[in-house]
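Quick illustration for those who missed Monday's session on complexes.
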Amino acid sequence: MPKFQENALILDHREVADRTWLMRLMSPKIALEARAGQFVMVRVRDGIDPLLRRPLSFHRTFPEEGCIELLYRVVGKGTLLLSKTVPGMNLDLLGPLGNGFDLPAPDARGPIALIAGGIGIAPLFDLMERIALSNPAFDPQQMNLFYGTRTVAELLALSYFGALGVRVHWSTDDGSFGHKGHVTRMFAQFAEDSAFRPESLYACGPLEMQFHVARWALAHDVPAQLSLESLMACGLGACLGCALPAASPDDPAADGYVHVCMDGPIFPAGAVQWQKLQVHRPPPPIFLSD
Ligand SMILES: Cc1cc2nc3c(=O)[nH]c(=O)nc-3n(C[C@H](O)[C@H](O)[C@H](O)COP(=O)(O)OP(=O)(O)OC[C@H]3O[C@@H](n4cnc5c(N)ncnc54)[C@H](O)[C@@H]3O)c2cc1C
Ligand code: FES
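Prediction with FE2/S2 (inorganic) cluster bound:
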């Protein structure tokens, strides 16, 4: 799969929810090759500080126009610097990287579940668009998006999903909109109450959320594709910094590693040893000054 380093022109850049920015870039080579679930490594500014690129997933891709969109949450120095860039500037991108999601079979008709925790919505949007485009006979209402954030200010607006025609189930941890509580709880409750059994399940969000999704998928024998996160330095398999403990089908306790940038970021539910991961809550919002 070809990878490119492209100097991409920023076409549009705006805040669409609390600390959540949407950026549209002209990047024709990368746009042509990108698959949903893959990512780019972004140099957030020239020079050596910060030294490392930051991984961001494709939020939407427009191969014919040569454009890509990134949706990101400001959490630290790199993403804060990124949020200061403006249309007309250029960004150095490396991609597309990683494996990407497998789309449902062309004759798939049954329900699909997508679970997004916070900024985990970013790659799932591209995936939903591609599922709809790749299979015009597929009823978008069969796509059930379970989308949760900490509070209503972090949610993307309803209008954002309007054109897709998917069923959105909303949750917020503080109950400021939709179901009160974690998105995985809402999903499990919905599945139990309505005997909902998706033909396939896709998820992106914090590792703690993915742990619950994986447990549900394995217990109910539903094929799942989870986009897993890990801190990345190179994105290319060179630094081995993105390793997660791998589960061996023959011996679940055997030690081994998967590398999120090369082997993933998309994995089946049983690919990692969840019990060995330090499953913790995401860091609290930090104070951001100008
Ligand atoms: C394959 C992949 C795709 C991603 N796609 C997106 C995306 O589409 N949109 C988006 O907003 N973010 C995405 N991320 C996460 C994003 O890369 C990090 O939030 C970003 O690198 C943080 O950089 P920073 O300099 O702002 O923060 P830093 O100063 O590096 O870190 C600030 C805080 O964020 C935490 N953090 C940093 N990196 C990660 C990470 N990878 N996962 C979880 N917490 C992290 C740190 O532990 C720290 O507490 C993706 C990560 C991966 C691995
Ligand atoms: S980030 Fe360097 S090997 Fe994966």
